[in-house]
């Protein structure tokens, strides 16, 4: 499928995986909307893209903020063909250490933030009877571990949601939905972790094989480039050497 002139809304576009997706899709001739809380970072990325692009500041944890961001799109960018739900947090912690605010923020951003964006793009996709929603989930939604309870639950929710979205939205509205499930990717995501005990126990050192953000962007591109009759349901990607 030719992605030229497709309008793409990317959350979490200020760094890591979202930024790489923006850069790769810009090379395909897409029109890119970059969204996150960091307008300065987004402006710098926008200036470097070889395509029409627009920056919107929004907090995924806040329904009003997300709604305002979509309302602020200029006519050139308002008919969204592709939504990439990439914004997310990962403040891993042991349940026994009771990091309630972080648990709630994880659900607020990773799950409810994705729902807020899906809510905003559905009317246009339903009307044009086409669209593609890419949900960046995680292998942690399938393979649980101590310290990853709430983050894993948030990503399991996204994987389940993606499946149900395909059931409801694909037959009637021709909307494709893909869940991308990366293993460890070398980004700043682990800086969210404040649980000292977990940080002392877990080794996030250089020895661990890691993917890079571009690896995930290529997976997104693969799903988007398939013919309209092909819906890549899920892609689970791990670094070579990890089973
Ligand atoms: N890195 C990994 O190992 C890995 C593995 C599997 C899945 N993932 C998933 O990949 C996605 C991207 O993460 P990353 O690894 O690229 O990490 P990252 O570089 O830290 O990016 C996280 C992005 O989420 C945005 N974000 C966080 N809280 C937000 C909020 N309240 N409102 C709006 N935007 C918010 C951040 O933007 P601002 O701070 O500018 O708002 C940033 O752009 C996440 O969903 C993550 O769960 C990552």
Task: Identify the CATH class.
Answer: Alpha Beta
Bound molecules: NADP nicotinamide-adenine-dinucleotide phosphate
Mean of residue pLDDT values: 97
Helix content, binned percent: 40-55%
Please supply descriptive tags for the structure shown above.
243 residues; alpha/beta; Rossmann fold; 7-stranded parallel β-sheet; 7 helices; 16% strand; binds NADP nicotinamide-adenine-dinucleotide phosphate
Describe the structure.
The chain has 7 helices and 7 strands. The model has no long low-confidence stretch (mean pLDDT 97). The protein has one domain: Rossmann fold. The chain has a 7-stranded parallel sheet, with helices on both faces. It is globular, with a radius of gyration of 17 Å. The longest helix has 29 residues, at 100-128. Strand 5, helix 5 (149-173) and strand 6 form a beta-alpha-beta unit. Helix 1 (16-27) crosses helix 7 (213-225). The protein is of the alpha/beta class and 243 residues long. NADP nicotinamide-adenine-dinucleotide phosphate is lined by residues 12, 14-18, 36-38, 41, 59-61, 86-90, 109, 136, 138, 182, 184-185, 187-189. Residues 12, 14-18, 36-38, 41, 59-61, 86-90, 109, 136, 138, 182, 184-185, 187-189 line the site of NADP nicotinamide-adenine-dinucleotide phosphate.
SSE arrangement:
Blueprint (H helix, E strand, L loop, with lengths): L6 E5 L4 H12 L3 E6 L2 H10 L4 E5 L5 H9 L10 E4 L14 H29 L2 E6 L12 H25 L1 E8 L13 H6 L11 H13 L8 E4 L6
Parallel strand pairs: 1-2, 1-4, 2-3, 4-5, 5-6, 6-7
The structure holds NADP nicotinamide-adenine-dinucleotide phosphate.
The site of NADP nicotinamide-adenine-dinucleotide phosphate (NAP) has 27 residues, from helix 1.
């Amino acid at each position: 499928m030719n992605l030229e002139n497709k309008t793409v809304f990317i959350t979490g576009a200020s760094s890591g995986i979202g930024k790489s997706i923006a850069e790769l899709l810009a090379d395909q001739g897409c029109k890119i909307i970059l969204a996150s809380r960091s307008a300065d970072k987004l402006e710098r990325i926008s200036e470097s893209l070889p395509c029409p692009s627009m920056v919107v500041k929004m907090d995924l944890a806040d329904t009003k903020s997300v709604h305002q961001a979509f309302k602020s799109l200029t006519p050139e960018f308002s008919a969204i063909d592709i939504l990439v739900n990439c914004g997310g947090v990962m403040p891993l912690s042991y349940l026994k250490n009771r990091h309630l605010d972080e648990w709630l923020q994880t659900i607020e951003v990773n799950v409810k933030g994705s729902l807020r964006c899906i809510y905003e793009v559905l009317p246009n996709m339903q009307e044009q009877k086409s669209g593609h929603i890419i949900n960046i989930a995680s292998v942690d939604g399938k393979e649980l571990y101590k310290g990853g309870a709430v983050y894993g639950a948030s990503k399991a929710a996204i994987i389940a949601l993606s499946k149900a979205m395909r059931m409801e939205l694909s037959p009637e509205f021709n909307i494709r939905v893909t869940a991308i499930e990366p293993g460890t990717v070398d980004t700043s995501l682990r800086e969210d972790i404040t649980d000292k005990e977990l940080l002392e126990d877990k080794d996030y050192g250089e020895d661990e094989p890691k993917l890079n953000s571009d690896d995930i962007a290529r997976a997104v591109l693969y799903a988007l480039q398939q013919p309209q009759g092909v819906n890549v349901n899920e892609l689970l990607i791990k670094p070579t050497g990890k089973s």
